[in-house]
Amino acid sequence: MNATRALTTKFNAQLSTGRVQTPTLGMVATREKEINEFKPKTYYGLQAKVTGGVTYTWRDDKNNTRIFQKEKADKLFQSLKGETLTIDRIDKAAKKKYAPQLYDLTELQRDANRLFGFSGKQTLSIMQSLYERHKVLTYPRTDSRVISTDIVPTLNERLEACGIDQYASVAQTILRKGIKKLPKSVVDNAKVSDHHAIIPTEEPVYLSNLDAKERRIYDLVVKRFLAVLMDPYEYEQTTIHARISEEAFTANGRIIKNQGWRTLYDRSFDEDDFDNQSLPSVKQGDTFTNFTLNLTNGETKPPERFTEGALLQAMENPVRYMDADEKHLAGTLQKSGGIGTVATRADIIDKLFNSEYMELKGKHIFITPKGKQLLDLAPEDLRSPALTAEWEQKLSLIADGKLNKNKFIAEIKDYTKEIIQEIKANDATFKHDNITGTKCPDCGKLMLEVRNRHGRMLVCQDRSCGHKKNIAKRTNARCPNCHKRLELRGEGEGQIFTCSCGHREKLSTFNKRKQHEKKHKVSKRDVNKYLKNQDDGFKNNALAEQLAKLRDKK
Q1: CATH topology of domain 105-223
Q2: pLDDT one-digit tens code per residue, 210-221
Q3: Is 139 tagged catalytic?
Q4: CA 350, 355, 357, 359 torsion: positive or negative?
Q5: Which one from 139, 206, 235, 321 is the annotated catalytic residue?
């Protein structure tokens, strides 16, 4: 709070910093730097395609499939041309894959962002509605992905409550089979913090009462809940090991034995490199000469920019973004659950957007010039997650009685004075990226163009002056051409509606047009009256007569 005030007054700009929001912004800047400095490398590989469609991939003695020297790849390719492919051995292994763990808030926010484009704050708001209003899901602000043993006796009742419509057959199958002993990945008292994972409640759900967004979030939670109670996904993994000359090649495939929990989902949960091709029946010692040897190539890709879901995950585990001399604090940071809490992280990200330190382009997050300047101007300690780790470490010592709380408070006071002095001594300047050519009528300084939820306005860059003037107001009026929302510009009788498509219309003309439309608009009552009159010509008079006779007989 003190650093925020110091930055704002020192650089005469609305700047804010904090031990969570500034390191979060720092992580976005680090990712941006990694992308900008990334230099793609071309790599090569070898594939042998046997007649019949099976593809064998070259691997070195360290199981790598990429060669980064063109000469080496060409030489290897030429040396293997015309050679025979021989089957060395066939490995078969029965494997099981259990469902992903139950949702905590961060994991739910990540999936909702990835699948539906929901922001973290939006997902939390929807969850709150499902918890407080509809009472069909449990407490959302949790960082646990397991349930405690006292919840297990209630699982049948929860299954009955959520087991309707599309979930009915799966829920009934689980109830019929009975819930067997659940693994520690589902039930573990030691890993439940203040609240257990997000699961359905015993309250019966009426899906018709949920809106479209609530249905999507509810669907995610219920499917994950059902999945952990279902059988594992079982398959037989087959790897054929072959060689051409002395070089190793492999082909991978799998035979599904039981879809298990994956029947709930229509998207793939495969997270391995197996190509799952259909493999022929071969045996050790078989040889092939009828194959095509291909030299493949590709390029390494830079790290992907953060989505909001990925940034939430990075806040939960920010160790990667700590300097080498700060790594000794990694354990403390992991134990404390990263920076921020499950309840505050979405608000922190939202604040960084609203403060124009970050911006969203499509689904990816970019740092703004204002955000870059803030990181340059803010004290170095506040840019690293290590500060949170150090404080958490000392708070744990206080809780264990190993550190006096007054000593910690005194350190905080001294640290506050240090960072204020560091900001005061900074001789850098802040450059507004939204400065205009319009001069302030009060002080003569150039004004800034600021966007808010109501529209756009001009604000004097000198905070002590404070002069403001509206430029354009966002309205609910719609463009008659493209139907986008119109902006209202100007003042008094000169006010004019403008649209991004180029449409322009004076306020007076707009009002006349609306009055004319209202005058000639047909009401619903008139429409219903007209339709009623039209029915007279379509009545089945013969049927009406027969029904009348039947009533008379009775």
Answers
A1: Topoisomerase I; domain 4 (1.10.290)
A2: 999 999 999 999
A3: yes
A4: positive
A5: 139
